[in-house]
Amino acid sequence: MTSRRYFLKTVAAAAGMAFCSCALLDAARAQQSGGPRLPVMVNGKRVKTVDVHAHCLFHEAEKLMGDDNAAFKSPMPEAGKQVFITLDERLKAMDAQGVDMEVLSINPFWYRKDRDLAAEIVRVQNEKLAELCASKPDRFAAFASLALQFPDLAAEQLETAIKKQGLRGAAIGGNVAGDEFADPKFHPVWAKAEELGAVLFIHPQTTPELAKRLKGNSWLTNAIALPTETTIALSHLIFEGTLDRFPGLKIISAHGGGYLPHYADRSDHACLTNPAGCDPNIKLQKKPTEYLKQLYFDSLIFSPEALRHLAAQVGVSQIMLGSDHPYPWQDHPVDAVMATTSLGDDEKIAILGGNAARVFNLSM
């Protein structure tokens, strides 16, 4: 990450919407200098690309948080001066990245809030997301926000988001204030998601219980802890039988699923090696690694070799383009897929946009 990168925040004033953004200037420079840009072509064929891992924030939600608005501050050590720019700048950055459409998500910062405040934050965000997507339906889709700490409310919010607001699913954390998604109290939400065909996007947040061990160099609270949190969340969904109970759930996990897909075979041996450590009342319908083939994963894992291995483990049909935009983890996600020579043209097309079009039922 170069020193010239800095954190930006974009805003579309007319719609009252703000993007937490960074690396937009880099993207604009790339566009000017002949870097990645639309249209994306694979072997002479125009490919519409869909980034399923892109973030935004809204000023209205920030105001609701009052003084407790740390979630709206850039976590990046290099974060510098924050500025507000227009929606056009976000679109230019997408063009420079070679991204036709972003599926926007907001990381849940409200799981510890009371019912009324959480409900109001979710209402505001989902209305703003719906407004934005309706204004640019060829460029944006979105995951709804949910107040998961109140499962009955979350199920209602999800139904409204899908049936009335045109949102495509919901963005959820890696746990809910310390409670795992496999907890039966969340079953009504997963049942509603399955019924609606809503896509759930798991994006990890924090692991406060590891705070002491993660102190030190290299921002371990993000670099190591977030993939770990996703690994734990997915493992509970598998081993507690949640995916057996709700086999139609569509779940995408950020950052390539954390560490689980890359060391998944160990999970197949856990109960065989130590039966006493496993609940005899939970009888999985298949091997733990086989559940990975019914989950989806973004492509934000940085190297062609990592993407090759992920595809070998879960199948190309389960992988979608992801960048973490506007955070500058991977400014040009399309290039990362194109550089993976182990993938054929049809496989690259699937990851770049075809799989997302199928799962989200997008008109491409």
Indicate the topology.
Elements: E1 7-12, E2 17-22, H1 24-32, E3 40-42, E4 45-47, E5 50-55, H2 59-65, E6 84-85, H3 87-97, E7 101-105, H4 115-135, E8 140-144, H5 151-163, E9 169-172, H6 187-196, E10 199-202, H7 220-223, H8 225-239, H9 242-245, E11 250-253, H10 265-273, H11 288-291, E12 296-298, H12 304-314, E13 319-320, H13 333-338, H14 345-360
Parallel strand pairs: 1-6, 5-7, 7-8, 8-9, 9-10, 10-11, 11-12, 12-13
Antiparallel strand pairs: 1-2, 3-4
Helix pairs in contact: 1-3, 2-4, 5-6
Order of helices and strands: EEHEEEHEHEHEHEHEHHHEHHEHEHH
CATH topology term: TIM Barrel
Helix content: 25-40%
Number of helices: 14
Summarize the structure.
With 364 residues, the protein is an alpha/beta fold.
What structural keywords apply?
364 residues, alpha/beta, disordered N terminus, globular, single chain, three-stranded mixed beta sheet, eight-stranded parallel beta sheet, 13 strands, TIM Barrel, 38% helix
What would you note in describing this structure?
- The protein is an alpha/beta fold and 364 residues long.
- It has one domain: Metal-dependent hydrolases (TIM Barrel, Alpha-Beta Barrel), CATH 3.20.20.140.
- It has helices at residues 24-32, 59-65, 87-97, 115-135, 151-163, 187-196, 220-223, 225-239, 242-245, 265-273, 288-291, 304-314, 333-338, 345-360; strands at residues 7-12, 17-22, 40-42, 45-47, 50-55, 84-85, 101-105, 140-144, 169-172, 199-202, 250-253, 296-298, 319-320.
- The strands form three sheets. An eight-stranded parallel β-sheet has the order 5-7-8-9-10-11-12-13.
- Helix 1 crosses helix 3 and helix 5 packs parallel to helix 6 (187-196).
